[in-house]
UniProtKB/TrEMBL annotation:
Source superkingdom: Bacteria
Pfam families: Amidohydro_1
Keywords associated with the record: Hydrolase
Organism: Helicobacter felis (strain ATCC 49179 / CCUG 28539 / NCTC 12436 / CS1)
GO molecular function: hydrolase activity, acting on carbon-nitrogen (but not peptide) bonds
NCBIfam families from the UniProt entry: PRK08418.1
Signal sequence segment: none
InterPro entries linked: Amidohydro-rel, Metal-dep_hydrolase_composite, Metal_Hydrolase, MTA/SAH_deaminase
Name of this protein: Amidohydrolase family protein/Chlorohydrolase
C-alpha cells in the first residue's frame, strides 16, 4: 500500500466501543486513514517496509475534540461580569462585547495554539460575526464552523436573515474536510421562532445544529411561564416595547429540531421531559457540557444522572474565554473529573469519551476513536498507566500538554 506508515506507543487507548487498550500498540495509516490496528510487532511483520514512529513511555489516543468554543471572544479577560448570575453576565456582554474584539487576530492565533498543544485536533467553533473564519480556515485544526443565528425581534427578521446568510455563504467558500460549515441557533431567548424556522427550512438534515439551551433559570421561566428576568432583558436592555413570546414552551423550541443532528449546549436547567422530548424529536442528540463556564455563569454543574436516565451521551467543551478562565480542554477535563458528582470511575470513562468519541459523533466527524476506517487524527501523551479510564484521564490532566498530534495522518508537532 502506498504512503503507508506505522505510529506506535508503549500504550494505545482506542476509545472504541469495546474500549480496547493495547500494550505496545500501533496503528497503520494510509491516505490519512487508519488501515490497521494492533500490537506493534504484528503490524511490523505485516508491513515490513512501512516507516515507523514509536513513542516510548507514551500513550497513543485519538486526537481530542473540543465541540464548543467561541474564538471571537479569545481576547476577553475581565470585562464581563461574573458573580452576578447569568443575568449579570448577559447584561455585561450586551454592553461591552465590541470592546473585547480589539487585537483579535493575535488572540485567536493564541487560542488555536492552546487547542493544538493540549492535543485537540477538532473544534466546534461558534461564530457570532465571522471574525475568526479566515484564520481558522488556515490552521491545521479540523473545524466544524457554526455560523450563529441571532435575532429576537420580528421587525429585524429580514435583516438578521440576510446577515446570517451572507456569513454562511462566506463559510461555504472554505468547505473542505478541515472546515465543515454548520449552524448555531444561539438560544431560545435570542432567536425568534419564525427566524429559526426560515433558516432551518433551507438547511439539509445532516448539518450539525448547535444551540445554547436552558443555561439559566430565568431562561426556563421565560420559556415555560413568560415571566421573570427576561421580560426586563427585552424591554430595558433590548428596548423591545412588547416582547413577543415566540415559543409556547420548551417543547415548542425543541420541535424546531425535528430529525436534526442536534447539540444542546449546557442544558443545566433541563428537566427529564425536556431530554426525552429532544431525544424523540431529533435524529441524534448530544448534550455539550462546559463545567467551568456553568459554574461561573449559573453557579452549578450539569446533573449527569438525568442524561443517563434519558440515555443521551454528553461531550465536554471549554466554551469561550467569554465565560471561562482559559480554553484549555485538559484543564476542563481535570476540573470536570474533580467536581462532577457521581462515581469517579464512571465519570472518568464518560469524560474520556466526552472529549474523544462522543464529541466527534456530536460534530458529525469520523475521528474520535482508533479504529480501522476512521480518520487518522491522533494524540500522544507522556504516560503509560492505562489500566482504567481514571488512570488515563489522570495521565492526560497531569501531562498538561500533548507530546505529539497528527491530523489526517499529518504530524502537526
Ligand atoms: O456559552 C456562553 C454563554 N452563553 C451564551 N452565549 C455565549 C457564551 N459565550 C459567548 N457567548 C456569545 C454568544 O455566541 O455571547 C453572545 C452571543 O454572541 C450573547 S447574546 C448577544
Ligand atoms: Fe457558548
Amino acid at each position: 500500500m502506498d504512503n503507508l506508515k506505522i505510529i506506535g506507543a508503549s500504550a494505545l487507548v482506542s476509545c472504541d466501543n469495546a474500549f480496547s487498550v493495547w500494550e505496545n500498540g500501533a496503528v497503520a495509516l494510509a491516505s490519512g486513514h487508519i488501515v490497521d490496528i494492533g500490537k506493534l510487532e504484528t503490524l511490523r511483520r505485516t508491513y515490513p517496509n512501512a516507516p515507523l514512529k514509536f513513542y516510548r513511555h507514551c500513550a497513543l489516543l485519538p486526537a481530542l475534540v473540543n465541540p464548543h468554543i467561541h474564538f471571537e471572544f479569545s481576547g476577553h479577560k475581565n470585562t464581563f461580569k461574573y458573580g452576578g448570575g447569568f443575568e449579570g453576565w448577559l447584561t455585561s456582554v450586551m454592553r461591552h462585547r465590541e470592546s473585547v474584539f480589539k487585537g483579535l487576530d493575535r488572540h485567536i492565533q493564541q487560542a488555536i495554539r492552546v487547542q493544538l498543544r493540549s492535543g485537540v485536533g477538532s473544534v466546534g467553533a461558534i461564530s457570532s460575526h465571522g471574525l475568526e473564519r479566515e484564520t481558522l480556515a488556515r490552521t491545521p485544526l479540523r473545524v466544524v464552523f457554526f455560523d450563529e443565528l441571532i435575532g429576537s425581534t420580528p421587525h429585524a427578521l429580514e435583516q438578521n436573515l440576510a446577515d446570517f446568510e451572507r456569513r454562511c455563504a462566506l463559510s461555504r467558500q472554505h468547505a473542505s474536510a478541515h472546515f465543515i460549515p454548520a449552524i448555531a441557533i444561539h438560544a431560545p431567548y435570542s432567536v425568534h421562532k419564525t427566524l429559526a424556522q426560515r433558516v432551518l427550512d433551507k438547511i439539509d438534515l445532516k448539518t450539525p445544529i448547535s444551540a445554547h439551551f436552558l443555561e439559566s433559570k430565568p431562561e426556563l421561566e421565560w420559556l415555560e411561564s413568560k415571566q421573570g428576568w427576561f421580560g426586563h432583558f427585552f424591554s430595558d436592555i433590548l428596548r423591545v416595547q412588547h416582547p413577543v413570546y415566540s415559543y409556547e414552551n420548551t417543547q415548542d423550541f425543541l420541535d424546531l429540531f425535528s430529525k436534526r443532528h442536534l447539540l444542546l449546549v449546557h442544558a443545566l436547567f433541563a428537566r427529564p421531559e425536556h431530554f426525552q422530548h429532544a431525544k424523540k424529536i431529533a435524529a441524534q442528540v448530544h448534550v455539550i457540557t462546559c463545567p467551568r463556564s456553568n459554574r461561573l455563569l449559573s453557579g452549578q454543574l450539569l446533573d449527569l444522572t438525568l442524561l443517563r436516565a434519558a440515555q443521551i451521551p454528553y461531550a465536554l467543551a471549554t466554551d469561550g474565554k467569554s465565560s471561562n478562565m482559559d480554553i484549555d480542554l485538559l484543564e476542563e477535563l481535570g476540573y470536570a473529573l474533580f467536581t462532577l458528582p457521581g462515581n469517579l470511575e464512571d465519570n472518568a470513562l464518560e469524560l474520556l469519551l466526552g472529549c474523544t468519541r462522543h464529541a466527534s459523533q456530536a460534530l458529525g466527524l469520523s475521528n474520535g476513536s482508533l479504529e480501522v476506517g476512521k480518520v487518522a487524527d491522533l494524540s500522544v501523551f507522556p504516560f503509560t498507566k492505562v489500566n482504567t479510564p481514571l488512570e488515563i484521564v489522570l495521565g492526560m490532566v497531569r501531562a498538561k500538554k500533548a507530546r505529539a498530534l497528527y491530523i489526517q495522518g499529518c504530524q502537526v508537532f
